Amino acid sequence: MNGKHPPAIDTTEAGFSAEVDRFAANPALFPVLQQAARHMIELYDHFPRIARLVAAQQKWLLTQAAYALHLQRDPTDPLSGITAARLLEVIAATGLSSRNTATAFLAELRAYKLVRDVAGSTSKRSRPLEPTETSHEAMTLWFRGQMRSLDLIDRSNRVAQLEANPDIFRHAQPLAAKRLIADPAWREPPLSISCFVWTEYGGLILDDFVSRIANAEPEDGRHWVENLRFSELSSHYSLSRTHVRRLFARAEAQGWLGWQDRNGSRNRIWATASFVDDYKRWQSIKFCALERAYKEAVLLTGPDVF
User: Fold this and answer.
1) What residue ranges do the domains of the chain occupy?
2) What distances in angstroms separate CA 139 from CA 63, 66, 89, 233, 303, one per listed residue?
3) pLDDT tens across 204-251, in order?
4) Could you tell me if 213 and 222 are in contact, meaning their C-beta atoms sit under 8 angstroms apart?
5) Fold of 191-276
6) DSSP string, 45-93
7) What whole-number distance in Å separates Cα of residue 84 and Cα of residue 127?
8) Entry pTM
């Protein structure tokens, strides 16, 4: 990626699917996914309220949609940016959530002081909102972490270029959000993954679980985690043990994970190779969408970064 001109972007869906397949098959991917999972845990420790809020897939998607609306706001148009009406337009096109869910979500953001009224707005038709500084910081750190993961895969320099040109982020986040929200393969992950991420706070537990896997390559069809205890997960993420236990019970019931010597002194948990493969391909969809958005943002902002 050090040539004079950026490579052409294959904008077809077939091209994107092939790109995802190649990304998922990269042997360097899983350690990077574990690093990314650890980064998400660090973000939780720094922004626990935000992390808990977006740790379910539906709210993660709504958050990305809302932030994209903010970045696309036209200061001369009082009805642009984050409004209930604009967010409802997004979800109506995808069936992402119900009207009541989206409205309640914005109320939750306001209650947690993650968004606020746009200063000086005189609109009587809507109440335009904007992210608070905490929300800005969390989203920019998340995006930077995703770029760092991509850099680790191909030894490129996206993070450095992002820091040199913040406009890349402002263009790329809405592009990536639009693609991911519209993509049913990202919106509705395989059942092995959705049993976690379509549950309140399940994304936190899934990140923690993946970060603890000891063997990147399966042994006899299994990946192993040692010393994972519900009490520690419950304490770290301020969740009830019952909720944590229920998340794992669902996956165990489907045969995607289980325990060896559950009652013994060593609490070893395993996940099937298919579970990890599902996770790798699902995450690859996100990374490929972000990579496309990054490339398009570079073309829009102009610097020769490739």
Assistant:
1) 13-188+284-301, 191-276
2) 10, 11, 22, 24, 23
3) 999 999 999 999 999 999 999 988 999 999 999 999 999 999 999 999
4) no
5) Arc Repressor Mutant, subunit A (1.10.10)
6) HHSHHHHHHTSSHHHHHHHHHHHHHHHT--TT-TT-SB-HHHHHHHHHH
7) 8
8) 0.91
